[in-house]
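Tutorial, part two.
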Amino acid sequence: MSDLDRKVTRVFAGKVVRKDLVRKVKVGANVPVFVLEYLLGKYCATDDEIAIEAGLRLVNSTIASNVVRPDEANKVQSMVKNKGKYTLIDKVKVRYVAQDDKHWAELVNFGHLYVHIPEHFLRKYDRLLVGGIWAQVDIRHQYDEEARGRKSPFWIDSLKPIQIATFDLEEYRECRREFSSEEWMDLLLRTMGLEPCHFDRRRKLLLLVRMIPLCEHNYNLVELGPRGTGKSYVYQELSPYTILLTGPTTVANLFYNMATGKMGLVGIWDAVAFDEVADLQKMDKEVITTLKTYCESGMFARGKDALTGMASVAIFGNTNQAVDVMVRSSHLFSPLPEVIREDIAFLDRLHFYIPGWEIPKMRVEFFTEHYGLVVDYFAEALRELRKHNFTEAIDRFFSLGSHLNARDVKAVRKTVSGLIKIIYPHGEFMRDELAELLELAMEGRRRVKEQLKKLAPFEYSQTSFAYTDNKTRQERFVGVPEQGGRDMISSDPLAPDRSITPRWMTREESVCIV
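Running the prediction step on this input gives:
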């Protein structure tokens, strides 16, 4: 074990797992990562390689015999009837049915909507009533002829959550204090399954930016880059509170279905991600129009009502040209479909543009063999941090420059807030550490503005982003690397209301010269 592994297993005892084992089992098992990590923590919590191999066999056999496949639901129900009792690993949801005056449990893959559940489980695990949890369940078959109301033969005898049932944010913050910022960033990358020694600090930060929508509500992110860089991994594997869409959607599905009266995805999930954004070309224009309003304020109108949502929005797409070619010949939004690209107001609502071309394609050696946090525990930490706000942290040390308009300031503040939640959740950081996050936030927003300046130079002329140190009064300009460096002042065009007459020449004299 490395020094960091020993420290992690001591500080986060019981909340870490070896990520190479997760990857090994995941290849042949189609179950959520946190289910695998639960089983690995149960059977493979040792350094003895022989014991680990035996544990892996147990994990695989448990998945084969206890995890229900949706297409085998009827077979498993029959098995429970014949055996009288059976142990399952499934997602359990509980809802209150007023007609029966009773709580009913639903086992999603087991395929039954009306399973009896003792009330004490609801008091102990309240998340059963809010979205449900994955759990190990002992289910019993007992048909009661004399039961009143709705009859069901299935009863839950015991329930042991696989997902974290309770979370203590203060404990998480105290544990964070045990690590330096470099150690903590390395641990987070290992939690994502990556080995940090293959990435410099800038690339580590860019990888962590992908997680901002998980801890910052109503955050709008875009990443365009080469294929195979793991753009959507965070939204598939790192949190049970996100959903990844891989094709066009509708206003009813995304926002609100007026026919059924049910809230759409933005009201259910913490983050909604659009993968392979080029496939959205056939999406209804109304979706982008409604999404534009939602990305600005978190509100949208459906029918007679104005509704709100807290979900962040992430957009991922693939580039087909080298970045220098796109910079010279077009703009960095060119991989987006026309239905999005032509709506400049929607693009202006994006808070950060991750330069996907700077992140290397994932190779086998990039994956870690060390310990990382159990993803369900880390996902709970990010979700709990959504309730907190660090948008005013910049004001402790810095002031933003005059070229940043209201949307720019909002984008920069939300990005800095998100990065603080990820890297400094205890709220303790130095001036230089905050400056690092501020510069990255300004760069990501300026990348958006530079492309808007190409698309509509009359409206988006001011892109010389800068900030001032409140103590030294030193002003620092922040650029984008693909357009000539980070410290250069942009060659902005003149603002629309500026005259081209030199300061030393009167207007009458200039007319005479012409």
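Residues 170 and 437 are 23 Å apart (CA to CA). In part three we will examine how such features are distributed along the chain.
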